[in-house]
Amino acid sequence: MNIKLVIPAIAALLVCNVSFAAHHEMAENPNEAVAVNWLKAGATGKAETIAYVSEHLAEDGMVYGDRYVGFGFTFNPDDDSKMVIDRIIPGSPASKVLQSGDEFVVVKGVRVSKRTMDKLSFRGKPGEPVKVTIKRDGKRLKTEVERGIISNNYGKAELMADLESGDASNWAAELKVNEVVSKDSVVYVWTTRKDRD
After folding, report:
1. Residue 133 neighbours by CB under 8 Å, 6+ apart
2. Between 28 and 6, the higher pLDDT residue
3. I need a labelling partner for 85 at 20 to 30 A (CA). Which of 7, 32, 143, 150 fits?
């Protein structure tokens, strides 16, 4: 089954007063059940997620994530003392100047540390540059990264690598499926997710 899946996970305690979708039955599109069960597996655990994605995402399938304003990189949020880039989103502003493994040392004049991690200023409008100092191969480099509109899309191989590198102890979450809408082979699932700590 070749499925293109769009999962805009409007996450982390989003409260919606009107939720008519919960009263609707699943449509005839079997891809809706696959998409919903994928998200439920993702909220259950790492092994369940990997097994479900492996079985249900076509080898040439794509995951279309949220669009947002940013730089286009990911880092390990569990390491609260430093910010090292795990992944660069292809075609993003970060892909022009940053590499996986780069460590942020200074962001807009604020030195990166456990104490300042929540004070780093990455927010702003598309096109606005942010001056940073990074450490790459043991050397410090000063550069600028512009914000842009990021489309976080990736194929099965990249998704499986990301899933394999995840920390299973931080995986489970409470998940509520608010609405499921589909057209042809594209499925949109609006969820609310609450991490279990």
Report:
1. 104, 105, 106, 140, 141, 142, 143
2. 28
3. 7
Residue in 84, 76, 74, 51 with CA at minimum distance from that of residue 160: 51
Average pLDDT over residues 160-172: 83
> Residue 63, class by beta-carbon neighbours within 10 Å (0-12 exposed, 13-18 middle, 19+ buried)?
buried
pLDDT digits (tens, 9 = 90+) for 118-141: 888 877 788 889 999 999 999 999
Residue 100 CA to residue 85 CA, distance in Å, equals 5
The verdict on 43 and 76 lying in the same domain is no
